[in-house]
Structure formats: structure tokens, C-alpha cells
Amino acid sequence: MAYSKTDITKALETITAPGEGKSLVESEAIKNIVTFEKEIIVDVTIANPSLQAKKKVEVEIMKAIHQHVDQKADVKVNVTSETKNEPFKPEKPKVPGIKNIIAIASGKGGVGKSTITSNMAISLQKMGFKVGILDADVYGPSTHLMFDVANARPLSIEIDGRSKMQPVESYGVKILSLGFFTDANQAVIWRGAMASKALNQMIFDAHWGELDFLLIDLPPGTGDIHLSIVQAVPITGAVIVSTPQNIALADAKKGVAMFQQENINVPVLGIVENMSYFTPAELPDNKYYIFGKDGAKNLAEDIDTAFLGEVPLVQSIREAGDVGHPVALQENTPLENAFAEITKNTLSELVKRNDDLPPTEVVRITTMSGCSS
Ligand SMILES: Nc1ncnc2c1ncn2[C@@H]1O[C@H](COP(=O)(O)OP(=O)(O)OP(=O)(O)O)[C@@H](O)[C@H]1O
Ligand SMILES: [Mg+2]
User: Which positions are annotated as binding ATP (predicted)?
Assistant: First the structure.
């Protein structure tokens, strides 16, 4: 259970805003409170830009929350300073040239986010869309492997006098991955702020050109790092991946809850079920529901979100991923169709959501060309 924002606000009322004689709440210094499970993130803006003043407010907020709400709360405070007549701008910036940003998330690790992302990118590309993938997995990026560009490095090019990163292209998909910048044999410890800064650079300081879709392959989990990422990047909608297994579904539910948080408010486009069943090659009519049956379908119904489709557990999907040649590239196969179906369902949800929520440009399904199924 997340903490109550009313309790947090009450705790913050006990703190006097520096130089104001009023509480932080009364002086409207508190811009945003996000709660998720044991985590509380407070965005606060003060007039004094000195590091000392910022640190003091941060410590006071942490103390007040620990004293009045919960000793064990995991509190993060973002302090910014601004002059009084500059309005606070909470809107996320739009990215020039990129029409839609879709985040692929799961909660649980290893359920197939990167596999779904890479194959969806291929389906979109085959449908005639311009597609990019941003691999945001701080724990273990894999897109560069799945697209067979592990040894490539993004070039730096000069655009309008500024140096920009050029995404690496493979199978017609533009790719930037944290994997291009980190040593695979070295553990990199990321903090939320570092991860969102790196991602911001890969979005805003890169030369993506015109893209209909930028897919962001998120790391597993729903912690601080994810909150930072989804707050920093203007995501049009999120796709949640889960296996039908209860433990994965519980985490998928947390993933959905994270996106639907007030103040994060990223529309969840729906749920993809991966590893739905296994069919052995020698018994093509048999389906074995190894992780349970219809789990993600039922979850989608329960939480009133769309079910975007299912992908069976198939050896060739794993093999294709390992050799860097996504399975959706293979023409006229049931798997190519399965990924095309998921992609089409995602697009129709995106169109619906974009009609309701105006901030990012809509790509109409009617613009598809060369769709194979
Ligand atoms: N439907 C499938 N059939 C067979 N193998 C699969 C399937 N989906 C994923 N895999 C394999 O399972 C492994 C994990 O998949 P993947 O890397 O896509 O998961 P992930 O959710 O991105 O993991 P992480 O949380 O570590 O980022 C990979 O080896 C992948 O090839
Ligand atoms: Mg992954």
C-alpha cells in the first residue's frame, strides 16, 4: 500500500519555508508528491539557490516524513530553486521529430520485455513506420545483442553546430542502448537521477531524425529508477509484458499501478502475455500451459485494460534473440503474424488514447503500408 498524500502533506505543514515565515505547503513550495509502495518522492521548489539551503530543506522533509508518516519510508526529495515570478513548469518536454514514445515494462524480470520490444519494432518497420528503440535497461541492456550490433558504437555528428549521437541502425530500426556505453563485464551502479539523465541525453542529444515510434525497453522492477525514468521522459503510452504466472502477474499489476499514479499519468495501452503455452514440434496440436492459462488475459480484464495478444514459448524465439536476428523478420510464419497482431492491437489502443489525451501526435493505423497480415 502506498502512503496517503494527505498524511504526507500534514507532515510537510510542520516545516517552515526558508525566509517565508509560512509552512512549505502554505507557500506553495511543494510541487509534486508521488507515492509508490514504500517510496515517497517530493518535488520542492525554494527561492534560495544555494546548495546549503537545498540540503537543509531536503533533510527537514525527510525528518518530518519519518517522524509523522513512517520511520521506514524510503523518501527522495528533489529540490529546485526558482525566482518567484518564474512559473513552475511540470510538463514534460516534447521531442522534436518523435511522434510517439512507447515504454515496454513488466515489473518482473526475464518475462520477455526486450524480446517483445525488438519484435514489435520489426513489425512496425515492416508496416512502413519509422522506428527507434532506446534500451533503458540499466541492469542488463540487451537490444544491441538482439539486433547483432554488440560491437557497434554510435557516431557523433554535427547538427546545427551541435554535436549529436547518431543511433546505430540494424534491420531498418534505429537503436541507442546503454549497452553501447557500458562495459559488459563491469557492474554499473545507477541512481534514478543518473539513469534519467542518461536517457534524456539519448533522447534529446541524439539525432533520431523523424520517428513514428520510439520504443523504450525499460529495466525490470518498479522502484526509484523507474519512477525517475517515467517522470523524465514524455511517454505516450506503456505496454506491460507478463507471463501467465501469478508471481509475474502480481508484478505486472504493480507496473500498471506505477504508470497510473497521479502525476505520472502515463496511459497503459494494454498487456501482452508472453510464454503463454508451449507446443513441441513433434506434437503440433498440443498446447502445454506451463506457466498457467490466460493469466494476463484475466488480469487485463480485472484492471480494465486491453489484452494486446499472446506469444507462445518457442525455442526459435530464444535462438533468434541470441543470434541477433529477431524472429519477426522471418516471413510468413505464425510468429511473424503473432507479433504483427500484437503491434496492430497496440496501435489501435494508442489511437484511442491519443484521441482522449492530446499531448503527443497521433499516428493513424490507416497510414500502415506493407502490413503482412
Ligand atoms: N516467447 C518466448 N519463447 C522462448 N524464449 C523466450 C520467449 N520470450 C523470451 N524468451 C527468452 O527468454 C529470455 C528473457 O527474455 P527477455 O530478455 O526478452 O526478457 P526481459 O523481460 O527483457 O528480461 P530483463 O528483465 O532481464 O530485461 C531471453 O533469452 C529470450 O530469448
Ligand atoms: Mg530486457
Answer: 107-114
Closest of 295, 302, 245, 291 to residue 268, by C-alpha: 302
Q: Whose CA is nearest to atom 25 of ligand 1?
A: 109
Q: Domain spanning 5-81 has what CATH number?
A: 3.30.300.130
Q: How far is the CA of 108 from the centre of ligand 2 (A)?
A: 10
Instruction: Give the confidence band of 373 by pLDDT, cuts at 50, 70, 90.
Output: very low
User: Would you give the distance in Å from CA 237 to the centre of its chain?
Assistant: 9
CATH architecture of 98-356: 3-Layer(aba) Sandwich (3.40)
Q: How far apart are CA 49 and CA 19, in angstroms?
A: 13
- Could you report the per-residue pLDDT of 155-206, keeping only the tens digit for each? 999 988 889 999 999 999 999 998 888 777 776 777 777 888 888 889 889 9
- Judged by DSSP in three states, 10 sits in helix
Q: Which three cell numbers stand for residue 229?
A: 525514468
* Among 293, 222, 237, residue whose Cα is nearest residue 270: 237
**CA 205–ligand 2 middle distance (angstroms):** 23
How far is residue 247 from each of residues 111, 250, 253, 306, 353, measured CA to CA in Å? 11, 5, 10, 20, 29
Task: Give the residue extent of every domain in the chain.
Answer: 5-81, 98-356
Instruction: Please report which residue ranges of the chain form alpha helices under DSSP H.
Output: 5-12, 51-68, 113-126, 143-146, 192-204, 224-232, 246-260, 295-302, 315-323, 334-356
DSSP class of 183: -
Does ligand 1 lie within 6 Å of residue 318's CB atom?
yes
What CA–CA distance (Å, rounded) separates 48 from 18?
Answer: 8
* Residue 8: closest CA among 66, 90, 81, 80: 66
pTM of the model: 0.75
**C-alpha distances out from residue 138 to 189, 216, 222, 259, 317, Å:** 8, 12, 13, 19, 23
Residue 112 exposure: Cα atoms within 13 Å on the Cβ side: 25
3-state secondary structure 136-153: CCCCCCCHHHHCCCCCCC
Query: Poorest-confidence range of 71-75, 104-108, 364-368?
Result: 364-368
Q: Please identify, by atom number, the ligand 1 atom nearest to the C-alpha of residue 315.
A: 4
Is 128 one of the annotated binding-site residues? no
Is the separation of the CB atoms in 25 and 9 below 8 Å?
A: yes
